[in-house]
């Protein structure tokens, strides 16, 4: 059925529109006749309704009746709705028109790859960024490298050491050089030194940083060259200074110097605060004349802790570092972390000539090596070849550690001169430079590592279990404090008496004891009269006791450096060793993460102990615990 549309009633015009239409009519009237075209009234009407201001006349519309279809209102709204879903920001559009213009057979839009986020740089990439060039150029040394020492004859076999020293080493049972020594000795004992070339003011030596695993022979790597070089000296001056973090290490290194330097006439001194200050002063310097040129040293080599060194620098007359040919910082990362009175800055300043000092004639000794070359410009007369020649301090800094820091701030404080790095790595497959950059440490290949996760309240029981079950003796046991050490030893004594056993002797070694008590205990342990020594981290670094076959971390170490040094008390010099770590359940996650970050977790054997294992000794343990409570109650 066809419906004839009724014309819509005329709309009410606003005053503004009426004014507009009037002006429009007037404009049309004023137009020239030729330009005018016939218009259709309806068209004019619709145009004016649309509100467009257009002077162009519409072509005449045919006079037809308009037949309109019923409006598809609902459909239109739906389309509009869809559009809104898609483009929220756009103006509503004439959807009808739009659908009309989109051709149906368009090819699909090309798809572009999604924007990609660049991968975050790996930890290793980050570690290598901004790395010191000296570290990048490090000499990598394979830990398995050995070099036989020819005992007799002119040929040194590439070791760089003289005949006398070779004979001495062989006498000490050292018939081959360990990896770190194979590189360092020839480097430090370059040709010419044996021709009485003590100082090299015009061609000063390069400083050295060494990273090598625990027990790999770092001590001999500096003791041998120092003895070799200083043996040519005429006047006794303090020419080698070895700084170590603890008194026990000072004693140990002194013994090595004495053994290696036997028959060379070098005088060796120590300063640790173990003796009175005046006693130490009398050992180190002679004479009453203050500021005697070059100091008046009684020792060629001084081995000391940083605190006591600073005391002597500040308060001992005639104590001078102007002659230093070697400054050794062993356990360097630990010492550089120690800011005691800014010891390093004070030591370095003392090796350089002061700007305001001029030596007087009577102070000037006659022997040619009595005043260090770098200090000779202070003399009141020119010294050949010319006073204007630039002479640098010949003090060569040697840094050693199994966990060498790469902290640029700490290394910068050392003011290293053209440093040369040596990195000893256990495996050929690892990247030693990257490992140092990422604080991943090389361990002795002969070390076996185990961990045992335990309930914290039963930790002593687990500890006694591994001692008995695995026959642990000749062991160092590390705890977190002196108090914890004392308690564990006491509990073990009660445990042993409950078992009616006295085969295993266990003693505490801690800062609670006097220096003499500690020495006695350490000597007994070295003589194997004491089987197990329980200690805090006091002796976790550097201490070299060859028969230590086990290390137990009763309290798990809180950082990787501590772990490396503790476990490094065994498996030294190529011997095998076992390291155990007891990890409380609540610490397990942290400990595992620490190990994983150091790429070391896979090396750990994980062990368990349940009631089946612990049951047989639980009764003794509970009895010991009761006795311990009672004894603490009494005290
Ligand atoms: N060439 C060698 N031949 C035989 N034994 C050696 C040799 N070099 C060193 N040793 C012995 O190896 C042991 C470990 O040496 P040293 O104490 O110097 O290790 P280290 O690298 O300083 O360890 P740490 O990092 O724990 O201080 C010592 O007993 C030392 O006498």
UniProtKB/TrEMBL annotation:
<dbReference type="Pfam" id="PF00271">
    <property type="entry name" value="Helicase_C"/>
</dbReference>
<feature type="region of interest" description="Disordered">
    <location>
        <begin position="1"/>
        <end position="122"/>
    </location>
</feature>
<comment type="function">
    <text>RNA helicase.</text>
</comment>
<dbReference type="InterPro" id="IPR000629">
    <property type="entry name" value="RNA-helicase_DEAD-box_CS"/>
</dbReference>
<keyword id="KW-0378">Hydrolase</keyword>
<keyword id="KW-0694">RNA-binding</keyword>
<dbReference type="GO" id="GO:0003723">
    <property type="term" value="F:RNA binding"/>
</dbReference>
<dbReference type="GO" id="GO:0016787">
    <property type="term" value="F:hydrolase activity"/>
</dbReference>
<keyword id="KW-0067">ATP-binding</keyword>
<feature type="domain" description="Helicase ATP-binding">
    <location>
        <begin position="199"/>
        <end position="422"/>
    </location>
</feature>
<dbReference type="InterPro" id="IPR001650">
    <property type="entry name" value="Helicase_C-like"/>
</dbReference>
<dbReference type="InterPro" id="IPR014001">
    <property type="entry name" value="Helicase_ATP-bd"/>
</dbReference>
<feature type="compositionally biased region" description="Basic residues">
    <location>
        <begin position="12"/>
        <end position="34"/>
    </location>
</feature>
<feature type="compositionally biased region" description="Pro residues">
    <location>
        <begin position="105"/>
        <end position="115"/>
    </location>
</feature>
<dbReference type="Pfam" id="PF00270">
    <property type="entry name" value="DEAD"/>
</dbReference>
<feature type="compositionally biased region" description="Acidic residues">
    <location>
        <begin position="81"/>
        <end position="92"/>
    </location>
</feature>
<protein>
    <recommendedName>
        <fullName>ATP-dependent RNA helicase</fullName>
        <ecNumber>3.6.4.13</ecNumber>
    </recommendedName>
</protein>
<dbReference type="GO" id="GO:0005524">
    <property type="term" value="F:ATP binding"/>
</dbReference>
<comment type="similarity">
    <text>Belongs to the DEAD box helicase family.</text>
</comment>
<keyword id="KW-0547">Nucleotide-binding</keyword>
<feature type="compositionally biased region" description="Acidic residues">
    <location>
        <begin position="45"/>
        <end position="59"/>
    </location>
</feature>
<dbReference type="InterPro" id="IPR027417">
    <property type="entry name" value="P-loop_NTPase"/>
</dbReference>
<feature type="domain" description="Helicase C-terminal">
    <location>
        <begin position="446"/>
        <end position="615"/>
    </location>
</feature>
<dbReference type="GO" id="GO:0003724">
    <property type="term" value="F:RNA helicase activity"/>
</dbReference>
<dbReference type="InterPro" id="IPR011545">
    <property type="entry name" value="DEAD/DEAH_box_helicase_dom"/>
</dbReference>
<keyword id="KW-0347">Helicase</keyword>
<feature type="compositionally biased region" description="Polar residues">
    <location>
        <begin position="93"/>
        <end position="102"/>
    </location>
</feature>
């Amino acid at each position: 059925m066809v419906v004839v549309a009724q014309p819509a009633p005329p709309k009410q015009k606003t005053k503004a529109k009426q004014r507009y239409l009037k002006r429009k009519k007037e404009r049309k009237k004023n137009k020239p006749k030729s330009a005018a075209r016939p218009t259709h009234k309806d068209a004019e009407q619709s145009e004016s309704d649309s509100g467009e201001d257009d002077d162009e006349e519409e072509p005449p519309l045919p006079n037809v009746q308009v037949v309109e279809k019923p409006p598809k209102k609902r459909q239109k709204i739906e389309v509009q709705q869809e559009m809104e879903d898609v483009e929220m920001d756009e103006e509503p559009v004439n959807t009808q028109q739009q659908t009309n213009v989109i051709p149906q057979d368009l090819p699909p839009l090309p798809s572009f790859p999604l924007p990609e986020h660049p991968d975050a740089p790996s930890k290793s990439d980050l570690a290598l960024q901004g790395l010191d060039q000296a570290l990048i150029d490090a000499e990598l040394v394979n830990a398995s490298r050995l070099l036989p020492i020819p005992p007799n004859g002119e040929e040194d076999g590439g070791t760089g050491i003289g005949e006398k020293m070779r004979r001495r080493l062989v006498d000490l049972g050292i018939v081959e050089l360990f990896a770190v020594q194979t590189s360092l000795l020839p480097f430090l004992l370059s040709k010419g030194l044996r021709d009485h070339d003590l100082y090299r003011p015009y061609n000063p030596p390069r400083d050295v940083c060494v990273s090598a695993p625990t027990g790999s022979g770092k001590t001999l790597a500096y003791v041998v060259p120092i003895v070799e070089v200083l043996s040519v000296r005429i006047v006794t001056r303090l020419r080698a200074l070895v700084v170590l973090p603890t008194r026990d290490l000072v004693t140990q290194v002194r013994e090595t110097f004495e053994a290696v330097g036997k028959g060379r006439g070098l005088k060796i001194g120590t300063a640790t605060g173990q003796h009175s200050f005046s006693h130490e002063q009398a050992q180190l310097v002679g004479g009453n004349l203050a500021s005697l040129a070059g100091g008046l040293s009684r020792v060629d080599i001084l081995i000391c802790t940083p605190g006591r060194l600073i005391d002597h620098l500040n308060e001992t007359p005639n104590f001078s570092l102007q002659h230093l040919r070697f400054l050794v910082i062993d356990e360097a990362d630990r010492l550089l972390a120690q800011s005691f009175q800014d010891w390093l800055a004070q030591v370095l300043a003392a090796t350089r000539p002061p700007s305001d000092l001029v030596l007087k004639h009577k102070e000037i000794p006659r022997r040619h090596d009595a005043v260090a070359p770098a200090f000779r410009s202070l003399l009141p007369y020119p010294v050949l070849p010319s006073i204007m020649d630039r002479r640098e301090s010949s003090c060569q800094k040697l840094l050693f550690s199994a966990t060498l820091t790469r902290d640029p701030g700490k290394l910068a404080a050392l003011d290293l001169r053209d440093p040369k790095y040596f990195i000893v790595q256990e495996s050929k497959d690892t990247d030693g430079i990257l490992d140092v950059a990422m604080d991943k440490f090389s361990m002795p290949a002969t070390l076996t590592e185990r961990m045992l996760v335990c309930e914290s309240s039963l930790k002593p029981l687990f500890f006694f279990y591994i001692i008995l079950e695995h026959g642990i003796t000749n062991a160092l046991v590390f705890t977190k404090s002196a108090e914890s050490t004392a308690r564990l030893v006491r509990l073990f004594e009660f445990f042993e008496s409950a078992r009616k056993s006295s085969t295993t002797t266990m003693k505490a070694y801690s800062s609670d004891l006097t220096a003499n008590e500690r020495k006695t205990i350490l000597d007994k342990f070295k003589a194997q009269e004491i089987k197990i020594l329980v200690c805090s981290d006091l002796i976790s670094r550097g201490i070299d006791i060859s028969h230590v076959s086990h290390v137990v971390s009763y309290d798990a170490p809180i950082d990787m450096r501590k772990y490396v040094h503790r476990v490094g008390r065994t498996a030294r010099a190529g011997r095998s060793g076992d390291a155990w770590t007891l990890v409380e359940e609540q610490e397990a996650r942290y400990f595992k993460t620490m190990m994983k970050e150091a790429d070391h977790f896979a090396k750990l054997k994980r062990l368990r102990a349940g009631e089946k294992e612990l049951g047989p000794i639980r009764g003794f343990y509970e009895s010991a615990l009761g006795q311990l409570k009672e004894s603490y109650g009494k005290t």
